[in-house]
Amino acid sequence: MKKLLTILMVLVMMLAVFTACSAPSNEAASPSPTESATQAPSETADETPAPEPSEQADPLAVATLAGPTGMGMIRLFDNPAYEVSLLTSPDQISPKVISSEISVAAIPSNLAAVLYNKMQGGIKIVSVNTMGVLYIVENGDTINSIEDLAGKTLYATGQGATPEYVLNKILKENGLEDVTVEYMGAHADLANAVAAGDVSLALLPEPFVSSVLAQNPDVTVKLDINEEWRKIFGEDAGIPMGVTVVSDALAADTTIMNQLIADYTASVDYVLSDTDSAAADIVAKQIVGAQAVAKAAIPRCGISFITGDDCAAILDDYFQVMFDSNPQSLGGAIPDAGIYYMP
Fold first, then answer.
1. Which of 290, 285, 262 is nearest to 85 (CA)?
2. What is the pLDDT of residue 56?
3. Shortest CA distance to 109 belongs to which of 335, 267, 324?
């Protein structure tokens, strides 16, 4: 019996040894990658802030106008980061800016000042997106310089807005006090009159200029008003017809702003470098009616994306002229430096 008990005790001890050797120790075992990812965070991990998301959750609401401003941002229309609305009048954009319904808007430069003064801030100008676009066209051959306008009757549009005040400044600086300017209400009406031969001398913006030239081969471009402006304010100047504004809330997000600037700049570069493809895209989005007109207009539309100090310098001259002509064209005051977004 004693011998049997001894044998049983030896067997139990051997079994205990084998069991201990086969079980992995807690120190040696390491979790699999899946286990590591799903395990509860430690106290140290809880104290580490989560990284900021690299992309915006919703597309930016953008508003633009048919014409050069819409042409310049054509690549944004199909970019999922943006939801672009194409509108026909600045009056449709203003309430959307004021109500923060949109975050980005391409609007006339003086309207940016009006909104800034009305809202006591609230927006910032990111860029000048349209330079110039005003031209004097003639059905005939009497105008070869600004001085040749003396004693003539010139038809124009834009009374009470940028075209009138810019034209008045240029005429005054050139001592042309005997030019009779007759204003018509709509660009299209004046363009049709010139194309039909009913008006021989007119101030028109693009793309209406190209539309007229396509319809009437006797009409030619005689003067670039942007060039006449540069003769007064310097070669680095220009008439800032349109600007891009953003809400203050958006301007505070550097990551999104950098992406917006990069995307918009790339769009402008595309339009200026590949006019055939850009013209097709512009017609597809119903910004301009005909591809030939869009392609012809692009070089004269002053499509640009000028930011920072250069943007401010261009606009400062413009705002002063507008204020001197009619303070209410800017909403009663020249905007302070807070209106500019500096990348």
1. 285
2. 56
3. 335
Going from the C-alpha of 142 to that of each of 222, 226, 227, 261, the distances in angstroms are: 9, 20, 19, 44
Q: What are phi and psi of 76, to 5 degrees?
A: -80, -20
User: Domain 134-233 adopts which CATH fold?
Assistant: D-Maltodextrin-Binding Protein; domain 2 (3.40.190)
User: What topology is assigned to 60-131+239-339 in CATH?
Assistant: D-Maltodextrin-Binding Protein; domain 2 (3.40.190)
Q: Do 134-233 and 60-131+239-339 have the same topology in CATH?
A: yes
Could you tell me the CA-to-CA distances from 57 to 52, 53, 212 in Å, in that order? 12, 9, 44
Centroid of chain to Cα 237: 20
Statement: the pTM of the whole predicted model exceeds 0.90: no
Single-letter residue type at 47: E
- Percent of the chain residues past pLDDT 70, beyond the cut: 83
Going from N- to C-terminal start, the domains of the chain cover 60-131+239-339, 134-233
Q: What is the mean pLDDT of residues 185-205?
A: 97
